[in-house]
Amino acid sequence: MTSAGQQQAAQRLADVVRDEGRRVLATLARTTGSLTVAEDAVADAVETALRRWPVTGVPDEPRAWLTTVARNKALDTLRREAARVGKEADAVEVAALNAPEGPPEASVVRDDLLRLVFTCCHPALQVEAQVALALRTVCGLATADVARLLVLPEATVAKRLTRAKQKIAVAGIPYRVPDAEDLPARLTAVATVVHLVFTAGHSGGETLVRPQLCDEALRLARLLVELMPDESSLQGLLALMLLTDARRATRTDADGRLLTLAEQDRSRWDADAIAEGARLVEAALRRSRLGAGRFELQAAIAACHACAPSLEQTDWADVVALYDALLRVEDTPVVRLNRAVAVGELAGPAAGLAALEAVGGLGRLHLWHACRAELLARLDRRGEAVAAWQQALDCRPSPPEEDFIRRRLAGTTG
Amino acid sequence: MPTYAAILYSSRDADWTAPEEGPVMAEYGAFSQVAGPAVTGGAALFPTSTATTVRVQGGKGGDVLTTDGPFAEAKEVLSGFFLLDAPDLDAAIALAAQIPAAWDGAVELRPVIPMAG
């Protein structure tokens, strides 16, 4: 076996584990009732495959192979557990798991994945744990990769995951899709976790964008839309992320410096992503009608930007109207800040500044000071603009943002 | 089916036996009715002014130190507990949300370790 062949097999296996392993895990988590047992079993099966496949070749049905091997491993573990604590009842359940069956049908896998998503995003778990758990189990990432993407020490993530899995097992967090009456609230939690994964990829850390994290969030959102095609909030979420991500390549220049919307080369925006996002927005708004939630509305705003041929040709009246609608479902200072910026474009910098200064409680946010500085500069109130840029710097922005603010500051004084 | 301890914290350090607490106690009675066999045990506690905290210093058999009052002084007061049988955490949360302490303080749900035999 050549090393190239081995690499190929390893790559093939990595792909299979990514797309099929998480499905195997979801089903095994349900049948064993333990995420820990399921994870260990899948990890064992993967390890065995890694050892054998380079020699034997990748089987015709890798998922079936992984399912069988993982199920047998889980069975061993559960039998040992049952024998250790002397529980006959558990042994009966183990026997049921032992029943010969092929890989579960697609619809069963779909439902199992959905259960797993809701388990990972259960409100009885800390949000930080929800994010890590979703990346680990639903996306099928290794703990080390989760840690790298969240910019956390691996030990911290490992501890967080262990604690969460123990709580799921001991406190009896169920593997099931919530009842219709609880679904809206729980769906919000799921969407929030996915959005957090995306935002972490889009704005966190030393570098401006960690593309893998954005990709994982998009993958999760696509999965959710596929699982629950009637939920407009999920369509909105996917659209919002697609439309934001479409600008990924143009957010910085060749030297990695942050560019404003006005400076970005729109011809390099991802037209396919924008087209898909715009289609989803339309469908989401049609479906939600007057009940559009934050994701539908934020996506609609993102669509206004993404579909405009230039900054000047953006339909600012539409943007402001959408912000007004957003304020009715999510009245936060940050939404008011964004609305004020749009007002500045629609009705001029003086109107924008008035709207901005009416927003309270953002004195510690660099964005508020930076937007204020921008509007002051446009009104040619340079001294005040410089002071505002300075205040923005005092708020400890991330390194790329700090660099951006310093360049604007130099531009204002120069 | 797992058992959960629903530990009740109340915003008031009340004497639940006092006549003016009648309406609250009636609410607890109503909860017991609704929960039915899911409640397998529990108790309401006299106020913290009746509490004694006991510590043994220097390991087992050491000096017994007693202090007047509850173990921890807090804004919310440990006022009682229920033992609940529920199929999973969601069901336990649904039950806990009907305990009057949930809107007059908080209810902490803790899974109970099953004891052999």
Automatic annotation (TrEMBL), chain A:
UniProt GO BP: DNA-templated transcription initiation
The DUF6596 domain, residue ranges: 186-284
What InterPro entries is this protein classified in? DUF6596, RNA_pol_sigma-70_dom, RNA_pol_sigma70_r2, RNA_pol_sigma70_r4_t2, RNA_pol_sigma_r2, RNA_pol_sigma_r3/r4-like, WH-like_DNA-bd_sf
Q: Which domain of life is it from?
A: Bacteria
Indicate the segments forming the RNA polymerase sigma factor 70 region 4 type domain, all copies. 118-168
**Transcription: is it a keyword of this entry?**
yes
Q: Which GO terms describe its molecular function?
A: DNA binding; sigma factor activity
Question: Is Transcription among this UniProt entry's keywords?
Answer: yes
Keywords recorded for this protein, A-Z: Sigma factor, Transcription, Transcription regulation
Q: Where is the RNA polymerase sigma-70 region domain?
A: 17-82
> What is the similarity comment for this entry?
Belongs to the sigma-70 factor family. ECF subfamily.
Q: Which PANTHER family match?
A: BLL6612 PROTEIN, BLL6612 PROTEIN-RELATED
Name the chain's protein: Sigma-70 family RNA polymerase sigma factor
Give the organism, scientific name.
Answer: Goekera deserti
TrEMBL record, chain B:
The superkingdom of the source organism is Bacteria
Q: Spell out the Gene3D superfamilies in the cross-references.
A: Dimeric alpha+beta barrel
Coiled-coil residue windows: none
- The segment(s) forming the YCII-related domain are 40-115
Q: InterPro entries recorded for this chain?
A: Dimeric_a/b-barrel (IPR011008), YCII (IPR005545)
**Matching Pfam families, A to Z?**
YCII
- SUPFAM superfamilies the record matches: Dimeric alpha+beta barrel
Q: PANTHER family, alphabetically?
A: BLL7171 PROTEIN, BLL7171 PROTEIN-RELATED
Membership in a protein family = Belongs to the YciI family.
Tell me what this protein is called. Answer: Transcription initiation protein
Organism annotation:
Goekera deserti
